[in-house]
Design a protein that fits this description.
By secondary structure, the protein is of the alpha/beta class. Helix 5 crosses helix 6 and helix 7 packs across helix 8. It starts with 11 loop residues before the first helix and ends with a helix.
Length: about 350
């Protein structure tokens, strides 16, 4: 069944007002997105590569930190939990988060590992390369990060308990960098069920984690196939959307499954069946960095604010169309959402 709503059951303005009164806890891999902007005027005599003359550098939050920024940009309360290195990059990331109004009390500092940093070199609007800086996954676990900030594992559990109890929804943002582990997932799901909170997951299927019965899962088209255990279709073959929806429901039984399909839009699934497909809202695509962060943030916020699955997906679809039209990891503002709608 394929359909598109003629209008949101809840207007965008009302939805944005409701979101301002909500609070979210985001747990996941924290990153600093670093951009080097410049011009290319010649090829290096040392190797067949362009020489970039640097004009400026900018930074923004990436990964789970970008999910929190998306929520804060809507005026919602956002708390963040994860691991940050005890280095210059970590301090810059914390400064960005605090300036945006994100609470960082559960962001542990690591003395021996670097803050996960992605440096992108851009000439005009063309990304030339990306340089990643990170340590081994095990070093970024919540338990490792909290050793220096807390006296014991019980203190971490108590602080997580308070944070889950104080929020309206928990978002697990997994980039497979080490923060999201099965023990942490089990702990968070147990706390959320005890407090009656919504849990949303942006998964990295390669981690093989179990998060049965969550309220929302938001894989992209490739991740959906991994979750379902289906191989990538060969060129010319039809994407097995119906089969993926059925198998993911059988494996994880999520209340809602939203699969982002890139240029083909967004599939809304429930009970193992595709209920509807929304065409993409993007007119021009310059940079897809962080689009998944925007989708999980907007979907969760809309659900908690009372939107039905189609309206929530339309809201997220609209927001994703805004951020991919910008160069660099970005967040949509309420004004942009209202004008775009």
């Amino acid at each position: 069944m394929i359909r598109r709503p003629a209008m949101l059951p809840m207007t965008t303005a009302i939805l944005l007002e409701k979101i301002k009164n909500l609070r979210f806890l985001v747990i996941g891999d924290l990153m600093l997105d670093h951009y080097i902007w410049g011009e290319v005027q010649r090829i290096s005599p040392e190797a067949p590569v362009p020489v970039v003359f640097t004009a400026r550098e900018t930074e923004t939050a990436g990964g789970a930190a970008n999910v929190a920024l998306n929520l804060a940009a809507l005026g919602a309360g956002a708390s963040l939990a994860g691991s940050i290195g005890q280095d210059v990059e970590g301090s810059r990331l914390l400064d960005l988060l605090v300036a945006a109004g994100v609470e960082t009390g559960l962001c542990g500092r690591l003395g021996s590992r670097p803050t996960i940093t992605k440096t992108r070199v851009i000439a005009r609007t063309q990304q030339l390369c990306r340089i990643d800086r990170e340590g081994p996954r095990a070093a970024y676990s919540m338990d490792s990060a909290m050793d220096s900030a807390m006296d014991s594992e019980s203190e971490l559990s108590e602080r997580l308990d308070r944070a889950v109890g104080a929020c309206d929804a928990v978002i697990l943002s997994d980039y497979a960098k080490g923060v999201i582990t099965q023990p942490l997932v089990d702990r968070v799901l147990s706390l959320a069920r005890r407090h009656g909170k919504i849990v949303a997951v942006d998964p990295k299927p390669a981690r093989k984690l179990a998060f049965d019965g969550v309220d929302l899962i938001t894989p992209n088209r490739h991740e959906a196939l991994e979750l379902a255990g289906i191989p990538e279709p060969s060129p010319g073959e039809v994407y097995p959307l119906d089969e993926a929806a059925r198998l993911i429901h059988e494996a994880f039984a999520p209340r809602h499954l939203i699969i982002t399909l890139g240029a083909e839009g967004m599939a809304i699934c429930s009970g193992g069946r595709v209920q509807s497909i929304l065409p993409t809202r993007a007119r021009e695509v310059y940079d897809v960095s962080g689009a998944g962060d925007t989708v999980i943030a907007m979907l969760t916020a809309a659900f908690v604010a009372g939107a039905d699955p189609v309206a929530a997906a339309e809201f997220a679809n609209l927001a994703a169309g805004i951020v991919v039209s910008k160069i660099t990891t970005a967040t949509p503002t309420p004004r942009e959402l209202l004008e775009a709608w």
